[in-house]
Design brief:
The chain is of the alpha/beta class. It has two domains: 190 residues, Medium-chain alcohol dehydrogenases, catalytic domain (Quinone Oxidoreductase, Chain A, domain 1, Alpha-Beta Complex), CATH 3.90.180.10; 131 residues, Rossmann fold. It is 22% helix and 26% strand. The chain has ten helices and 17 strands. The strands form four sheets. Strands 3, 4, 5, 8, 9, 16 and 17 form a seven-stranded mixed sheet that branches. It has a six-stranded parallel sheet with strand order 12-11-10-13-14-15. A two-stranded antiparallel ribbon has the order 1-2. β11, α6 and β12 form a beta-alpha-beta unit. α4 packs across α5 and α4 crosses α9. It is globular. The protein starts with a strand and ends in a 7-residue tail after the last strand. The mean pLDDT is 96.
Length: 349
């Protein structure tokens, strides 16, 4: 299938239009016309080579909402015209213990990422959602609930599942005392999802400049991390802390806020953090952990959950031709919304 997208041709180059061929439809494949593609901060890190060299030219994008235009002969779950979604992975071995446990993101043989990874059969490099079409194995295509607004839903496929999965894994439920560090693209989704799960949510920030936003979301308020007295008074106040800071930082100022058996889970920074004072952990049986995304079953769960509670990321709609400006904005800091590209503007002539 001939298609068009926006690709990075090197780590220093601007995103540019890119014509390329999608693979031929296999019997278990679904062909999708992409309607909306979310822009994730990890896309910027990847194309910049921050996490290692990349197989350029590279089409990013793993927050994909679209419509089925063709199905393979063995596909049973989807038909032409269905509204569907694709997240951060498009394949796995389907045979290891993790895949059998619906944790394909931890496939023992390595999941196949939506872009920048070798195809499990042909070894050709996968290309992502900054494009007009995509072809994905049926098991990794998600159903879009009828109650979800397609134009606002793409970031649920990454920001949504990245925050929902640890909330569920660490048992956040009604009455849980939750803190979310940061109110950017990940943080604001963490707040919305934790509130919908019934938690009592506080935002931790360096200032109270976003107090009106926090109040509007329904959180208890802001705990200012630079206010040493307020932080001292908040000792042992939380059962769970979701840390969305996307850069190297010191977690020691946050771990005392955990109650006994509490957990601080990192979902923002991919890389080193400052040296940790283990004494604080030992004295309260506290833990520091990390979380990736969720499996396909859990990603479908968060889509259905968001539909039920009408939870959407804060989105700013852009045209594909504006992707370089969006990247520049992301590079300046973690914005409090997610960019979403309207792919209907992408000419496939």
């Amino acid at each position: 299938m001939r298609t068009i997208g926006y690709a990075a041709y090197s780590s220093e180059a601007k995103m540019m239009p890119y014509h390329f061929e999608r693979r031929a439809l296999r019997d278990n494949d679904v062909a999708i016309e992409i309607l909306y593609s979310g822009v994730c901060h990890s896309d910027l890190h990847t194309v910049n080579g921050d996490w290692g060299s990349q197989p350029y030219p590279l089409v990013p994008g793993h927050e994909i909402v679209g419509r089925v235009i063709e199905v393979g002969a063995l596909v049973k779950k989807y038909k032409v015209g269905d509204n569907v979604a694709v997240g951060c992975m498009v394949d796995s071995c389907q045979d290891c213990d993790q895949c059998h446990d619906h944790e394909e993101q931890f496939c023992r043989h390595g999941m196949t990422a939506t872009y920048g990874a070798p195809d499990r059969i042909t070894d050709e490099i996968t290309q992502g959602g900054y494009s007009k079409h995509i072809i994905v194995r049926e098991e990794f295509v998600l159903n879009m609930p009828v109650d979800l607004d397609l134009s606002k839903s793409a970031p649920i496929l990454c920001a949504g599942i990245t925050t929902y999965s640890p909330l569920k894994h660490w048992g956040v439920t009604k009455g849980s005392r939750v803190a979310v560090i940061g109110l950017g693209g990940l943080g604001h989704m963490g707040v919305k999802l934790a509130l919908a799960l019934g938690a009592k949510v506080t935002v931790i920030s360096r200032s109270d400049s976003k107090k009106e936003v926090v109040d509007a979301l329904g959180a208890k308020g802001i705990l200012v991390s630079k206010d040493s007295e307020a932080m001292r008074k908040a000792t042992a106040s939380f059962d769970f802390i979701l840390d969305t800071i996307p850069t190297k930082h010191n977690v020691d100022i946050y771990t005392p806020l955990l109650d006994v058996n509490g957990a601080l889970v990192l979902v923002g920074q991919v890389g080193p953090i400052d040296e940790v004072n283990v004494g604080t952990l030992i004295m309260g049986r506290r833990q520091i952990a990390g979380s990736l995304i969720g499996g396909i079953k859990e990603t479908q769960e968060v889509l259905d959950f968001c539909a039920k509670h009408q939870i959407y990321p804060e989105c700013k709609m852009i045209q594909p031709s504006e992707i370089n400006e969006a990247f520049a904005h992301l590079a300046e800091g973690d914005v409090a919304y997610r960019f979403v590209m309207d792919m209907s503007a992408l000419d496939n002539a």
